[in-house]
Each structure stands twice: as structure tokens, then as C-alpha cells.
Design brief:
single chain; 170 residues; alpha+beta; two-stranded antiparallel ribbon; 5 helices; 5 strands
């Protein structure tokens, strides 16, 4: 009976250790998502505001529309509760971001989107696509002297959801 009690105690101790490791892994994942959420690039805000200022002189109607888009962008950022959104919400967020950047880069930037509509209601981590699009823009298109494109695609492949951001820049 004593050996059985010791074996059960060891088993319970092992289970408690595994549960604690799982809890710690979940906390790390939550912290990583919180850090990503906080990474909205301040340069994006300043560059967008400078673009809008330029438009106030030459095209006030466009400047007004861009200000509305910028407000929507930050509204979307601030309304996020939890760590998951639908892919539809992530795409809307990326579209707003790209509209603001398109105003800045004008004809230098072409955007292609091809998202399977069947995927729009799936849950994805918050800020799944926007940091990738921003990276493609800044490290692919911005530093290039020629026109470029960013393509955002989403499809199901072999039972997995595959989201891809591709640029043709350097």
C-alpha cells in the first residue's frame, strides 16, 4: 500500500509539474501577442500625418478621407479585445493600413489581394498580417527605386490555412 501511495504521489507530482509548464507556456504566448499588439510603428503614424499635411495643401478632400482612414485604423487597433480576430477583421485592418500607405507611395505601390472567401470567418491571432505587410513595404518596396507590388493571399492547403505576403522589391 505504501508503494502504491508513493507511486500515485509521484504521478500526481508529475501531472502538477506538467500543468505548471503548460500554464507558463500559455503566459509566454500571451506576452508575445501583447508585445506584438504594442508594436504599431510610430514612424507609420508620423509618415502618414506628413502625407496628410501634404494633401491638405493640394487636395483637401483626399486629406479629409485619409484622416478618416487613420482614425479608423487606430479605432480598429484600440477596439481589439483578446488575442484573436476573424481573418475578415485582419484583412480590413490591412486594407486600411495599405490605403494610408498607398497615399504616401502613390503609383510606386501596387497591391494584389487574393483571399479565399471561405476563410474569412476563421479566427487568427491579432496582427497576423499587418506586420508582414509593413515589413514587405519597408524592406521590399520603400528602398527600391522602381515600382513594386505587395501580394496578400490566403488559401487552404492540405488542411492548413496558408497566409502569404509577397513583395517584388529588393
Amino acid at each position: 500500500v505504501v508503494k502504491l501511495a508513493l507511486a500515485v504521489a509521484q504521478l500526481l507530482g508529475l501531472q502538477m509539474e506538467l500543468a505548471e509548464l503548460d500554464r507558463q507556456a500559455q503566459l509566454v504566448t500571451k506576452a508575445e501577442l501583447d508585445a506584438l499588439h504594442a508594436q504599431i510603428n510610430p514612424h507609420f503614424l508620423f509618415n502618414t500625418l506628413n502625407t496628410i499635411i501634404t494633401y491638405t495643401r493640394t487636395d483637401p478632400d483626399t486629406a479629409r478621407k485619409l484622416l478618416i482612414r487613420l482614425a479608423a485604423f487606430f479605432r480598429q487597433t484600440l477596439k481589439r479585445h483578446g488575442h484573436f480576430n476573424t481573418l475578415r477583421e485582419e484583412i480590413e485592418y490591412v486594407n486600411t493600413y495599405l490605403i494610408l500607405e498607398k497615399a504616401r507611395f502613390r503609383e510606386k505601390l501596387k497591391i494584389q489581394r487574393n483571399i479565399d472567401p471561405a476563410l474569412l470567418d476563421i479566427q487568427v491571432p491579432v496582427l497576423t498580417l499587418q506586420p508582414l505587410v509593413e515589413n514587405a513595404l519597408y524592406h521590399g518596396i520603400k528602398i527600391s527605386r522602381r515600382k513594386g507590388f505587395i501580394r496578400v493571399t490566403g488559401a487552404e492547403q492540405s488542411g492548413h490555412i496558408v497566409l502569404e505576403v509577397v513583395d517584388d522589391g529588393s
